[in-house]
Each structure stands twice: as structure tokens, then as C-alpha cells.
Amino acid sequence: MTPIDRLTAIMARLRDPVGGCPWDVEQTFATIAPYTLEEAYEVADAIERGDMDELKSELGDLLFQVVFHARMAEEQGLFAFDDVAEAIADKLERRHPHVFGPNGPSEAAKPDGAAQKARWEDIKAAERVAKAQHGVLDDVPVGLPALARAAKLTRRAARVGFDWPSTDEVFDKLDEEVAELRVEIAAGDMDKARDEVGDLLFVVANLARKLGVEPEDALRGANAKFVRRFGFIEAELAKDGRSPEQSDLAEMDGLWDAAKAAERG
How many whole angstroms separate alpha carbon 99 and alpha carbon 107? Predict the structure, then answer.
């Protein structure tokens, strides 16, 4: 028995209404979806930490999510795991004609990275037409993290010319959104302020896209930096037997600057 056959057999056993696991049996696509997203994030986290043993484990957890969804679909007569594998194999061959075309791979016809990315998007656009998804933004997944989806939406719109000419105009828009946010805060209208915060974040995602930066990656890095520097503050205060609650903003700001200086050093 191959490892994947063993895994799909285990999943079928877990979902068995008679002898399976009660928790696994009661799950649905909707209830499992959050775990699927969580496992994808844990894969990204293992990669960022450079922990290859953990990456192997997390990839297994993510694969199990695919097997779980496929098993539920098979029970409903929709599709099975082999159909999932077949679908992605077909898609990869279709979207890489320079590799899998009728004449085989050709070094002369091999596009560079930018050209291949453009060709990939052209092929996806043709697929959307074939699926009667004619809107440019039709297949941008709603379930993506909000910043990542904002960048993907603006990237897709930019392909048809709906884009600022340069980052200068994006910075102007940032200034405009900050000013509008200040107005709503001053007016005490938190519902409108919430909308303006969303507009501001959307423009920031657009700026990241213009700079070739993935906003989710950038924010994840900023989160890690915050945790690291705040940990420095806690460690320095602990030397005196104190916690952040026993400090004040001025002292913690000073320690934050010390953490930054230490990192630069």
C-alpha cells in the first residue's frame, strides 16, 4: 500500500459512521475550512522559521486537510481524491504549454519569469471565459486573507489598465485616506472611521503590490519584529524584577529604541 493509499484509507475509517471517530464523522466542508486555512498558515510559519522537520510535519497536516475534503466529497458522490489530483495535473499541463506542449520543452521558446507569469494570467483569463466567469475579479477567492486578497484584486485590475501610473499617486491617495480617517474620528463616527481604515489598508496593499511586496509577508515580518522587540522590553524590565505593568510608556519607548539599536548592531 502506498503512503497516499494508506492515508486515504485512514480517512475513510475515521469517517465511518459505525466504527469511526465521532468528531470526524460530524464534520462538514464548512467546519473543516478554518482548519485548512490554519494548516496553510502553519506551513508558511515553518518555512519562515527555516524548520524543515516542522515543514515536513505541517505539509502532512495540510495534505490531510485535502484528503478530508476529498473524502467528504466522495461520500456525497461529488468527486474523490484521485479526481483532485487529476484536476491539478491537467491544470499544470494546460498552464505550462512551453513545457508540456505537443513538441515538448523548447529552450528557445522558454519564457523568462515575468513572461511566464503574464502567460499564466492569460491562460487563467481564457479559463474564466470558458467557465462563464467573465468578470476580471470573478475568481479572486473571498476566503483569502484580506490583505492578500486586496493585493490580488488590484493586481488583477492592473492587468486591464486600472492602475495608478506610479507610486507617487498611491502616496497621494494614502494622504487623502488618512485625512478622511481623521475627519471621521474627529466627528466621533466610528462606523465611517471603520470604513476609512479599510480604505487605508486597501491603499497600503495597493502600494505593496506596486513595489512588488506581498503585504501578508510584510505584515507577518512586522508582527515578528514587534514580538521580538517587545520581548526585549520584557527581558530588560525583568532584570530589575519588574513587568511592563510596572513600567511606563517613556521607559518602554526607550527600551524599544534600544532593541532597534541592538538589531542594527
Answer: 9
DSSP string, 187-203: HT-HHHHHHHHHHHHHH
CA-to-CA dists, residue 220 to 41, 44, 141, 224, angstroms = 11, 10, 20, 6
Note the residue count of the chain.
265
- Helical (H) or strand (E) element with 71: helix 52-75
Cβ distance 147 to 213 under 8 Å?
no
Regarding pTM above 0.85, the answer is no
- What CA–CA distance (Å, rounded) separates 122 from 227? 41
The amino acid at residue 26 is E
Q: List alpha helices for 211-264, DSSP H.
A: 215-238, 249-264
> How far is it, in rounded angstroms, from Cα 96 to Cα 175?
42
Rounded Cα distance, 144 and 38, in Å: 12
pLDDT tens column, 28-61: 999 999 899 899 989 988 998 899 999 999 999 9
